[in-house]
Structure formats: C-alpha cells, structure tokens
Specification:
single chain; 218 residues; alpha/beta; Ribulose 1,5 Bisphosphate Carboxylase/Oxygenase; Rossmann fold; 2 domains; four-stranded antiparallel sheet; four-stranded parallel sheet; 22% strand; Ribosomal_uL1-like; Ribosome biogenesis protein UTP30; Ribosomal_uL1/biogenesis
Length: 218
C-alpha cells in the first residue's frame, strides 16, 4: 500500500465520522471537454467498489418493457440482474419535472440503457440532468434474440467500472473504493484508475479522499 492510502485509512480509523467511499480526485490543467458529454468514460477496475447487495440497478429498454421483463425473467442469469426494468416511453410519461428526473437518477447506483434507445433517453433526461449527474446511463447491447450470458457480462463489467464524468470543469472524481473495503483491493483500484487517467491527461494532479476527509495527494 502507498503512503496516501495508509494515511487515509489511519485517519478514518481514528475518526470514524470520516469513513465512507474513497474517491480519486482529479485536477485538470485545463477543461477536459468543451461541452457536456452524454456518456461517462468507463474506467475498468479490478474490484467492485460496492457489494452486490449495495447496488441498485436500472435498465431502460425499448418499449414495450414487459417483453424485456419476460425475457430477463426466463433465464436465471438475467432474472435478478436488474432492480428495475423500464421502457423509455414510460419514463417519458413519468419524468415530467426536474425533481422527478433527479429522483430517478439518485435512486440507482447504476443505470444501463439499451443502445437503441440511448438517444431518446438523453432527450427524456435533458441537458440539466447531464450537467449535474454524478453517474450517467451506460449503453449495453440488447438484442431481440436475448443472449443471457452476454447481458450478464456487460452488466458485470459495467458495475466493476468507475465512471469518469467529464464536464467543462477542471475537477472531477471517481469512486475507487471504501474505507471498509480490503485495503489491497482499494490500492489496486487506485492504481488502475490513476494509470487510466494519466495516460489520457498526463498533466492531471491526483489525490484521494473520503467525502469528509482531507485530500491526500498521490
């Protein structure tokens, strides 16, 4: 383990109120994008940052949603993958206000979207959602002739990735672990995210912190 993580874990052990998710903070030399992006960059991590029972996963599909609910329910590999399956048309009728849209985004730890309806979903959520959202919908391929193994693989990969949401700002952060997570696994996640970011933004300055702790530079 590196000194920054050791110091952070020591600090949170002495002050339990500082415990919580561990984030890799990124300070860019200049704004990384000119406009808001509709999809986050996915950073592959070796270990999940949440237990499976802490995940709340939604998938947005082409209407009618009941057809997809039936398909998922017919195979044990996909029967329990999603906490909610909803059609983009139903969402359009349901999300009529900014408050409803924000509530939808905050309810789930991951939102997947069938690639065929990614653009309509963007229109439903609107520009203001993408300006504020901490995590964005992840497109996955869902075919009429459903391949349960392929669906399961895409969802597992998505839940193991950290989302780097780039906006016109010189700061961003990604979740890489938790103070209660195995320290070696957290370090491996930090190393993977650090390598990913610096390969694309070599001038970036990195640090780690929990929501309530001080930032510790890497």
């Amino acid at each position: 383990m590196t000194r920054p993580l050791l110091a952070l874990l020591d600090e949170t052990e002495r002050h339990p109120k500082l415990e919580g998710p561990i984030y890799l903070g990124i300070i860019f030399k200049k704004d990384p994008v000119a406009n808001y992006q509709e999809h986050a960059m996915l950073i592959p991590l070796p270990h999940r940052t949440r237990r499976s029972d802490e995940e709340m996963i939604c998938v947005v599909v082409k209407d009618p949603q009941h057809a997809w609910q039936t398909k998922f329910g017919e195979n044990k590999l996909t029967a329990t993958l999603f906490d909610e399956v909803t059609g983009v048309g139903k969402l359009r009728r349901r999300l009529k206000s900014k408050k409803a849209i924000e509530s939808f985004g905050e309810t789930f730890t991951k939102i997947f979207v069938q690639d065929k309806v990614a653009k309509p979903l963007s229109e439903v959520l609107g520009t203001s959602y993408f300006k504020r959202a901490k995590h964005l919908p992840i497109p996955i391929q869902l075919d009429e002739a459903l391949d349960p193994r392929k669906v399961q693989y895409q969802v597992r990969q998505g839940t193991k990735c950290a989302q780097l949401v780039l906006k016109p700002s010189t700061f961003a952060s990604v979740r890489v672990g938790h103070t209660k997570m195995d320290a070696e696994k957290t370090q491996q996640n930090i190393d993977a995210a650090r390598k990913f970011v610096l390969k694309r933004y070599p001038d970036a300055k990195l640090h780690i912190k929990t929501p309530e702790s001080m930032s510790l530079p890497l």
